[in-house]
Amino acid sequence: MELRDIGETLDYYGRFTPEDSDHRWRWVKDIYRYVFWFEYLALSPSYELARRYRTGSALDESDLPADFDDVLSVYDDLGDVQRILFRQWWRKIGLPNFGFDCEKPKVWLVGITEDEVEPDPGLTDELGYFFEEEWVDYGKQETLILAVPTGLPSGEINAEINQILDQVTAKRQPHKPPPAKYQLAEGRFRADALRRYFRLVQYQAQNPSFPHWKVGFYAFSEGNEYDDKRVGVSPCKLPDVDQKKNLANSARRSIEHARMIAENAARGQFPTHTPHPHALAFDFFELRDLIDQRNKWQKSEVKRLIRADQN
Distance (Å, rounded) from C-alpha 209 to C-alpha 197? Predict the structure, then answer.
C-alpha cells in the first residue's frame, strides 16, 4: 500500500484556477482546507458503509451506526469520494455545498466627477443601484464609501486609503457572508496536525498488526517533518522502553483523533475530534484494501485524463 500525503491530492490532474474558488453565487476563501475534508471522508467507516448502501451492496444491519440516516444524508450531498479525483469532486459537488451562497464582494466604482464639473445627478442613482442590487448580492457586507481625488499621485492615494482602513480596522465588522450548507468548524485550522493524524492512520492501515509504538516510530522515520517532538526519539536508533511508551501513547491518541475527525466529517462536522457516540471503529485490514484500491484507481484515472487531453 502506498503512503500518500494529503497535499499530494492537489497534484492530480492540474492545479486550481480562479473559477474553482469563485463562481457567481458560490465562492470559498480557501479551497485547500476542503481537501482535508475530502480525504478524511475517505477514511470514515460510517461513510464507507453509506457508499456501499447507496451502491446496492448488502449490509448487515447490526454493522450500521445508530445515526446511519444522518450519515446517508451527508453522503447524498457529498457523494462518493473513493472513485473521483478531488478537482472533479470539487467542481461538481464541493463548491455547491461548501461555497458561500452569495457573490464574492469586490471593489465597486459608483461614479466619477470631472474637473470643475458638478457631480452628475445620476451619481445618486448609481449609489442607489449599488445598495439595492450589488450590495445585496455581496451579502450586505460592511462597505466603505470614499471620495478619491484622481489627480493625486497613486502612491499618495494608496497611502491615504490604507490610513483610513487602519482607522476603521478596530471597529470593522468581520466578513460574514451567508452561511454555506456545510461549514468548517470554528477555531484554528491545524493543517499540520491533520496531516500527522492522517499519516499515522495510513501507516497503521499499511501495517495492521504493528503495535502503536512501532506505528508512531516508523510512520515518520523517513522525513519526519511531522514527527511529534514530545516523544524525544531519533529515527536513527530504536527507542527504549520509556520512549516506546511515549510513542505508543502519542500514536494511539493521534489515531483516535483521526477516527473522530473522519466520523464527524461523515456527519457534516469538520474538523473536530470531539467524541461522537455513534462513531465506528477502524478496521485496519479493510482500510488497507480500501486505500490501496483508491490510490490505484486515482493513478489510472489521471493517466486516462492525460491521454484524453493529448488526443
Answer: 18
Query: Alpha-carbon distance 230 to 130, whole Å?
Result: 55
Q: What are the structural domain ranges in the chain?
A: 23-101+182-310, 103-178
All three cell numbers of 28: 470559498
Asked if residues 240 and 228 have their Cβ atoms less than 8 Å apart, the reply is no
Residue 227 scores a pLDDT above 50: no
Q: Return the pLDDT at 83.
A: 94
How far apart are alpha carbons 214 and 168 in whole angstroms?
54
Contact between residue 148 and residue 157 where contact means Cβ atoms under 8 Å apart = yes
What pLDDT, in 10s, does the model give residues 170-205?
565 555 555 678 888 888 789 899 999 999 999 999
Give residue for cell 494608496.
158
Q: Can you tell me the distance from the alpha carbon of 83 to that of 31, in angstroms, rounded to the nearest whole number?
A: 20
Q: What is the pTM of this model?
A: 0.71
First-to-last C-alpha distance (Å) of the chain: 32
Secondary structure element (H or E) that encloses residue 22, with its range: strand 22-23
Task: Judge whether 159 and 139 are in contact, CB under 8 Å.
Answer: no
